[in-house]
Amino acid sequence: MEPARREKQNVVILVISQMLFMVASITVMTLSGVVGQHLSPDPGLATLPIAMMMLGTVASTLPASLYMKRVGRRRGFITGASLGGVVGGLLSFAAIALGSFWLFCAGNLMLGLYQGFAMYYRFAAADAASPAFRSRAISFVMAGGVAAAFLGPWNASAATDLVAAVPDGGPYLVIAILALLAIGLLSQLRIPPSGEPQPGEASRPMATIAARPSFRVAVLAGAVGYAIMVLVMTATPLAMRARGFEMSQVALIMQWHVLGMFAPSFFTGGLIARFGVPRILLAGTLLLTGTVVVANLGASLAHFWVALVLLGIGWNFLFVGGSALLSTVHSEAERGKVQGVNDLIIFSLVALGSLMAGAMLHHLGWEALNLAMLPAILLVMLATLWLGLVAKPQEAGSS
Question: Which residue, among 230, 227, 185, 183, has the nearest Cα to 322 in the 3D structure?
């Protein structure tokens, strides 16, 4: 009973830590562009702080994984929450108080480091869980974003006057406080020895692991699904505003989108356990295809609502499914580099997608931007079919 109780305790800690981190991430996505517009010497640089957060994530993803391979999950997560969450939040708050745009960019860069470490919460849940509970553990951690879907926008608006002398600084101070709370929780994390790196374990070359079909499909599904989601999500407020929608309507659509991203996590793990990863990945590609179809059927509030909810659920299926599949292709000794390479690829594409969204919307328009996503969706669909029909029998025959 003791291992089972510890397993559940670890997952609860990671779920709450995920929620606290997601409040920070959604706050940045909601507010940092507005603050950047106020502080920036050039209106064209208004969204640079958000891009800096993504850059911080890309730069820290692989080092974070390798660092945690050496020191363990608990110490690594505490480091990320301390340097990224606490320092990043305080630095952003100080930048607003001083009226320094570039210091604000630096603060958001540090918040990207927080994200670089926090993205491994889902893998820590897999490390701490028994094989039968693994996919559900990943899903429960991802479900921490459901509460953040409400708390993030609320923090970005309600806490703006928390410190009267520093307008818009309050939400970043809250980020630092919540990161301190996360540090306290993470100090109680107890990953069992089987989930921590063991000295002397054999480790295959990365090229050997990358040659496995399961690795390729896991990375492709996660990277393409995430990049498409961020690109379309980033373009949505601009597209809606261009059509005359109020900011309150834009906020409503984005809130439902975030709920679509994380609410399915309560049952995605169960669906994976019942139907298998390939079918869930295929369902994810069909949902993203539905986003494209609905976006091209009309531009009413209802069309945006349905398209963005489908986009969120499709992302969830591809990201959780890809994460579950990735956990099957590496040993404990290989975990750090495999997960690091996976997230490095994912967030490199995510950063590219967030940077491309505005230009694509300007040159292509909302409908054509969505249509441009179809080739990448089709690629994931074909790769998943290949894995189910060809790769598994081949790997079984060679084992």
Answer: 227
pLDDT winner (highest mean) among 79-88, 112-121, 339-348, 355-364: 79-88
Percent of the chain with pLDDT over 70: 90
Place of tokens 């940045």: 28
| pLDDT at position 193 | 55
| pLDDT tens digits, 94-109 | 999 999 999 999 999 9
- For the chain, give the mean pLDDT: 84
Q: Do residues 257 and 373 share a domain?
A: yes
Q: Domain of 17? A: 1-196
**Spatial separation of the C-alpha atoms in residues 239 and 55, rounded to whole Å:** 25
Would you say residue 116 has pLDDT above 60? yes
Same domain, 98 and 233: no
Residue 297 has pLDDT above 50, yes or no: yes
Residues 157 and 298 in one domain: no
**Of 162, 196, 230, at which residue does a domain stop?**
196
- Do 283 and 374 belong to one domain? yes
pLDDT tens readout for residues 61-89: 888 888 988 888 899 999 999 999 999 99
Same domain, 191 and 105: yes
- 69 and 161 within one domain: yes
Of the pLDDT bands very low, low, confident and very high (cuts 50, 70, 90), residue 198 is low
Number of domains in the chain: 2
- Whole-structure pTM value: 0.74
CA separation for the pair 373, 362 (Å, rounded) = 16
